[in-house]
Each structure stands twice: as C-alpha cells, then as structure tokens.
Amino acid sequence: MTKPPLADSTILICGAGAIGGTVAAFLKRAGYDVVAVDAAEEHVAAIRSDGLRIEGPVSSFTVACDAVTPDRLRGEFDLVLLAVKAQHTRNAVKTLAPHLAPDGVIVSVQNGLNETVIAEIVGRDRTMGCFVNFGADYLAPGKIEYGGRGAFVLGEIDGRMTDRLNRVHEIVLSFEPDAIVTDNIFGYLWSKMAFFALLISQTLSNVPTEEFLDDPKFRPLLHRIVGEVARVANAEGIELMSYQGFDASSFLTANAATMNATIDAYADARRGSAKLHSGIWRDIAVRKRPTEVGAQIAPIIDAARRHGIDTPVFERAIELIADVEAGQLELSSALTEELLQLVSLPSQR
Fold first, then answer.
1. CATH superfamily, domain at 11-183
2. N or C terminus of the chain with fewer C-beta within 10 Å?
3. What integer pLDDT is reported at residue 278 of this predicted model?
4. What is the pLDDT of residues 132-174, one digit of tens each?
5. pLDDT per residue over 257-276, tens digit each?
6. Strands (E), the chain
7. Do domains 11-183 and 187-342 have the same CATH topology?
8. For 297-301, which contacts have Cβ atoms below 8 Å and span 24 or more sequence positions?
9. CB neighbours of 274 closer than 8 A, spacing ≥ 6?
C-alpha cells in the first residue's frame, strides 16, 4: 500500500496492551514501521521472540514487531500513539517527551480526558485527541483478543481541521476503516465519560455487559448515574456526541423512554462482541491490578464542584470501586442494589 506522509518514519505506540497492541499489530501488518513500548517485560519479550498475536472474532494473525521497555527506548519520533492507562499518562509522557520530534504529535488513544495532561507536558500544538470504543483484552504476554470493532474518532484539541489530522486519519484507516475525524473531540470524550458511569455500575454488579444492559431493574440507576455526568458535561459547554447508538445527551432529558432507547440502541450495537465485561471489571477480577477509575473521574468531579452540580450516585459508585480495589468489598449485585437505593435522592439539574 502507499503510505501517507508522517508515516514515512517509525510510528511509536506506547502501551502495547489491549488498545495499543491491537492497533500496533494492524498497522504493522499494513506495512507501517512500528515500535511498541510497554512496561511489562514479559510482554515485550514475548513480542520480540514470537511476534504480536491478535485473536478473536474480528481477525486472527501474528506479526513480527519491534518492542522495547521504556528504559530501552531510543530515537526521535514524529508520531506517537499513547495507549497507557489513564493513571500512567503523566509519567509516560515525561518519558516520551525527549523522544518526540519538535513538530511531532502525541495522540491520546486512551480512555478519559488525558489530552489536557499531555498538553501540559509537551504543549497543545503537539497533542491530538482521540476517542476509541472497540473491544479488546490482554490475554497473555504477546497475545491480545480483539473482541469487537467500534468507534475510532480523531480530532485536534482546539477543533481545527488540519492536514496533520488528515494524515493521522489515513494511517488509522488501516486499523479501523470507519474511523472519522471531528472538530469536537471533547464532545466524544465527555460522552465516553458519561458511558464510563454506566461501565462502573456494570462492573460493580459483576454481571456481563449485555445482560446488565438488558435487565430493566438496572435502568433507573443508569438513568441517574449517566445523567449526573452528562449534566456536568453540559455545564462545561460540551456538545455531547453520539456513537454506536449511545447518545449521552438523551440523559439530559429526564425522559425514561428516551434514555431507554439509547441504552437499547447501544446494547443492540454491541451484541455479538466477545468482550463480555468492561476493562474496569477485567482489571479487578482478572488482572488483579488497580483500575484507571481514579484518574479518569478526577476532571469530572472537579468540574461538578466548579459548577455546583451534585453527583451523589456517581461519587458513591467511585467509592465502592475504591473499596473493591482495596479488598474491603467484593463485586456483587449487592453493590448495585445500594446504588439503586440512592437513586431516589433529589438530583440538581
């Protein structure tokens, strides 16, 4: 294939787990020169010796790919795709900064609102936003399950439509043919934060995502907890964007039928995905490691307090996740039952 400019040099992908590893494998298979950086030595060793393996219903293949740990990173890069967990963003960007070309760019292929952290370190002109919502899980060193395709949106953080944005988009199309560009990347990112509230509820319930979305008893909780975050975004002046049937702005209406239609549409859009649980659930139940919840919610809570918006159900869900991480509680339907009891509390609108 003919590679667009900006891809003539090596593409650095920092964080070769579920998200970064999947993208790295597809770009490498498409003919791009890729270096994967990951802190897990066993993962890097497996990639170097046996290749990077993608499994699952979307595609299955193995590619040879250069991989290094951060301490062995060398050289300068024009394009960096950052795919580490939100809580590792600051340290990762500090490590990457000396290796980023003066006119290079770091693209936040992450969950959360990490673009602001990246921009603090390398500058707004070297930061690009990205929204992803495909299903993938780290299985074992060198192996990743690509469970289901999903949205992939790129955007400059100042909303400009630039040549650089178009060039990165051309590269990403080798992974997701339906990837798009936008002049409102934060509209997508805040919509994902509203959806993030749903995922926290699903994680606490210990129920698979599809089953959770289809169960009517959880609907009042979803209406309330997603609505709390959507109202914070609205107060921030964010135009919430829909994706894969999920319209976060519908949770501003307080209309149960409208909100249920959004939940049903998203549930239908993801049916058949091999990814049965959220990444939050997998971190807790399978990988036994801290989640990125704390890092992701900080800007939401800060904004809520600036605007005087009450988010009691969302904040209690965060506390419960922290207690589970600390080993004080176990994931169970009892935790969502507790949240359901809070739903009757008045909410500021």
1. NAD(P)-binding Rossmann-like Domain (3.40.50.720)
2. N
3. 83
4. 999 899 999 999 999 999 999 999 999 999 999 999 999 999 9
5. 999 999 999 888 878 777 77
6. 11-14, 34-37, 52-55, 61-63, 66-68, 77-82, 100-108, 127-132, 135-140, 143-148, 152-156, 180-181
7. no
8. 297/196, 299/112, 299/113, 299/116, 300/193, 300/229, 300/232
9. 56, 57, 135, 145, 147, 148
- Supply the pLDDT for residue 347: 53
Domain boundaries, the chain: 11-183, 187-342
Token reading at 218: 């959880």
Q: Are 26 and 39 in contact (CB under 8 A)?
A: no
Phi, psi (deg, nearest 5) at residue 36: -100, 135
How far, in Å, CA of 191 to CA of 240, rounded? 6
Burial (CB count within 10 angstroms: exposed 0-12, middle 13-18, buried 19+), residue 215: middle
Residues in contact with 257: Cβ distance below 8 Å, sequence separation at least 6, in sequence order: none
pLDDT, mean of each 10-residue run, the chain (349 residues)? 59 97 98 97 98 96 98 96 96 97 97 95 98 94 95 97 97 98 98 94 92 93 96 97 93 94 90 78 87 89 96 95 94 94 69
Place of tokens 């909780």: 221
Q: Provide the token pair at 82.
A: 């950052």
Strands ordered across the beta sheet of 61-63: 61-63, 52-55, 143-148, 135-140
Query: What's the CATH architecture for 187-342?
Result: Orthogonal Bundle (1.10)
Query: Cα separations (Å) of 78 from 63, 83, 107, 176, 189?
Result: 23, 16, 11, 21, 24
Token couple for 121 = 């370190």
